[in-house]
Design a protein that fits this description.
This protein is of the alpha/beta class. It has helices at residues 8-21, 51-73, 88-97, 104-110, 128-134, 148-152, 179-190, 201-207, and strands at residues 2-4, 26-32, 35-40, 121-124, 141-142, 170-173, 196-197. It has two domains: 2-73, no CATH class; 88-207, Oxidized Rhodanese, domain 1, CATH 3.40.250.10. 40% of the residues lie in helices and 13% in strands. The chain has a four-stranded parallel β-sheet, with helices on one face. A three-stranded antiparallel β-sheet has the order 1-3-2, with helices on one face. The mean pLDDT is 89.
């Protein structure tokens, strides 16, 4: 890797980021006047046959370093959103644009736990405190948000027994239908093409008079 910059301060910042980004992989490095050289080793866990994929990831990491240094150098107004950033409303809208969201009654009709043998898997991603306070949907799988992807990725060693197919219908819900949209979009990223969430979440489900317990 060869990095160049217009000032010594910038190259030192870029070099520090590179050392951190490629932690344990920089075999040799040299910092000069506005230039940095580094020799990278492949990660020990990556087979030689996968070196091309590693190279693509390394290139992505390098571009991240350059963008980060350039943004820091631009003396951005801390009260103005940085270039390329998105508001949570934008992120949510992008996620929902990818989903075919369903209403509580439609989710009820689809789910295997409500006597549809070919039905969908209903997943409650709310934390325990919300489930205790507001109640639960009987029979729904409780998979909290922080482990959702690992439980449903067919390639994950931590996946559920049912998570073997990419056409698995997973219907996610949270309390009001916001976090669930981001979670369902993340499942789409894993390749679960039929993942979606419930409009209005548990609150709208309960308001519709559908089965609940506790709360």
């Amino acid at each position: 890797i060869v990095l160049c910059a217009s000032s010594q301060a910038l190259i030192e910042k870029a070099a520090a980021l590179a050392q951190a980004k490629f932690l344990g992989r920089v075999a040799r490095a040299s910092l000069g006047e506005c230039i940095w050289f580094g020799i990278l080793e492949n990660p020990p866990f990556v087979p030689a046959a996968d070196s091309a994929a590693t190279s693509d990831l390394d290139e992505e990491a390098l571009w991240h370093i350059l963008r980060r240094v350039a943004q820091d150098d631009a003396a951005l107004d801390p009260l103005v959103p940085p270039p390329g950033s998105k508001s949570i409303d934008d992120i949510l809208a992008s996620a929902r644009a990818r989903l075919t969201r369903i209403k509580p009654r439609d989710a009820f009709d689809e789910c295997v736990i409500f006597n549809n043998p070919q039905g969908a898997v209903l997943v409650d991603i709310r934390p325990a405190a919300q489930r205790h306070h507001y109640g639960e949907i009987p029979g729904a799988l409780i998979i909290e948000r922080n482990v959702l992807e690992w439980r449903f990725d067919p390639r994950s060693d931590a996946r559920l027994d049912i998570a073997t197919r990419y056409d698995l219908r997973v219907i996610v819900f949270c309390q009001e239908g916001y976090t669930s949209s981001l979670a369902a979009a993340s499942l789409l990223d894993l390749g679960l093409k039929n993942a979606t969430d419930i409009v209005g979440g548990f609150k709208e489900w309960k308001d519709a008079g559908l089965p609940t317990t506790g709360g």
